[in-house]
Specification:
By secondary structure, the chain is an alpha/beta fold. The protein has a single domain, classed as Aldolase class I (TIM Barrel, Alpha-Beta Barrel), CATH 3.20.20. It has six helices and nine strands. It has a seven-stranded parallel beta sheet. Strands 8-9 form a two-stranded antiparallel ribbon.
């Protein structure tokens, strides 16, 4: 999310969580202040995720000032075991399932929107003892197929945008609707 109104839209559509990209060269990167505004715009039951590929301990500490429900990171930061947030580790083909993660997100493109590898995703979902989130190239048209793999959750960014960082209300509504229909049909 890059705008508070998009967080509100996602909440209204029935999404379970929103994410903000911090300390990144992504076109979706927002400042800490903007991230706080986005988090505030979402409803009280919405998950709030800080997403970053940063290797900086200082950046990580600043992200945590937002009091997210989860952080999604690719760098192998050492984190305390007694923490008030969940840790989602990004994995791609060849990576082991991390022992210190509360969940993993399968995204070989590392947030670039390339379509996920169906066979790899299926193998991780079947072997993982922790929740697996599926990301990579998802949109309203292909999310049903992704949900049929039975991941814990699906993650979308560019697939529901009208331009980089700007969400499209119809696409968000269709994505959530299609994901929920596929989940309940399985």
């Amino acid at each position: 999310m890059t705008r508070p109104e998009d967080a509100h839209l996602a909440d209204k559509a029935g999404a379970d969580a929103i994410g903000v990209v911090l300390f990144s060269d992504s076109p979706r990167e927002v400042s800490l202040q903007r991230a706080a505004e986005i988090f505030k715009a979402a409803g009280p039951y919405m998950g709030r995720v800080c997403v970053s590929h940063t290797s900086s301990v200082q950046d990580l500490a600043q992200m945590l000032t937002l009091q997210p429900t989860a952080i999604q990171i690719s760098h192998p930061h050492t984190l305390p075991t007694n923490r008030p947030y969940q840790v989602i580790r990004v994995i791609q083909p060849g990576d082991p399932i991390p022992k210190d993660a509360d969940a993993v997100i399968v995204d070989a493109s590392m947030g670039k929107g390339a379509l996920y590898d169906h066979d790899y995703a299926q193998s991780i979902i079947s072997m993982s003892k922790i929740p697996v989130i599926l990301a990579g190239g998802l949109n309203p048209d292909n999310v049903k197929e992704a949900v049929r793999l039975r991941p814990y959750a699906v993650d979308v960014a560019s697939g529901v945008e009208s331009s980089p960082g700007i969400k499209d209300a119809r696409k968000i509504m269709a994505f959530v609707k299609n994901a929920r229909e596929a989940y309940h049909a399985a």
